[in-house]
Design goal:
alpha+beta, five-stranded antiparallel sheet
Length: 458
Amino acid sequence: MADNKLTNIQVYRKKWNINIGIIIFGVVFIYLIVTVLMYLTGNHVSAYEVREGSILKDNAYTGIILRDEMVVQSDTGGYVNYFALEGSKVGAKTRVYSISDKKLEFEDSTTEESQELSSEEQAALLIKTQSFTENFKDQQFSDVYTLKNNITTVLESKSNQSRQAQLDAMAVQEGGGLQIHSAASDGIIIYATDGYETTTADDVTEDMIAKKDYEKISLGNNAKIKAGDPVYKLIRANSWSIAILLDDDTATQLKDTTSVKVRFSKDNETAQAGFSIKNKKDAKIGILSFDSSMIRYAEERYLDLELILEDQSGLKIPKSSVVNKEFYLISEDYLTQGGNSKEDGVLVDTGKDNPEFQSVEIYDRDEEAGKVYLDANAFDKDTVLVKPDSSDTCRLNKTESIEGVYNINKGYAVFKQVNILCESDDYYIVESGNTYGLSNYDHIALYGEDVRENDVVF
């Protein structure tokens, strides 16, 4: 038997190799964990994008129209028929109406041939319709009725032309049986009365404005009238006014106002009106005075309107973004540039032979006073500044407050001052184009109180 041989087997420790991929993965993994933790525990800032906008403050009213009006009575009785189109301008020699002993028979004037528009009328209506189509907005639906009225006026004018031609023919045929009457004076002719033709601003009452017991009597063709009955009305002047009822707060707000901007709901037109207030025993009446555009509303006694008390445009920001921040206000003569940089800074007295340069950020500038605003947190209280090339000094011990917002365009908060022009319940309109202020499309913190200068935002 062969001898058994023993083999000595030694186990060697495996050499450890560095795996660079695992190290990189670990670093990235730790970075992601830290980032997530910072995000979860950090201060989340809601952003708001600054946009150009406007704030419109207006009050809606219904007012009664006051004009220089004259009611004309008929000298004789009979059946009345009109030549002139209602709302048109007539002269003293313009034929206005006829009186006949019996009703007049008119041929139907609504045939296709009689209603055919001239090329000029077609072009005018096309322009109005095209303008309406291009500019229509849902919130201005009243424009639909304006277009309707324009078209109706043209068609009524065509119908009236046919009626005039038939009246002319009847006058020739019937001789003295048809009496033709001309206008009593120049003016705008209206075929309706309501009893308020001679009313003045001093006569207006709260009940009148509220339309209490108001009744309008229209005068139509082939209607039978008696001698002395109203046959038409003339508006003889282009100046007119509207009386509105004011509440106490609005009357106080407008007590020193002499003119206001007015928007008419009927056609969405705007106009500038003279303004005054008449204090009655139980009411305050606002009087809006106009010297043009009367003919547009000649057929109306009451108008719905808005007083545009404020209409301001600029950058629109939420009120929640605005905060107050303290600043030191110093003369711009204390500014200098230090070292090899072109940064603005000041010289701080440290008690040594030479003052120390400290860079600063200017947050606002008062051009008239020649002063600049510096962040109060950048200096200790009672810090002494030295004017360059001078022995004059300035001690920082008094701060002033500025309204502003925190701009977060760069991922951290930077205070920007704002100049507020007007406000609504939730928004401010602030000045645009300021060197130290906001610009269109800037991003700001929605809630300014939650942010501090140089905070990193997520």
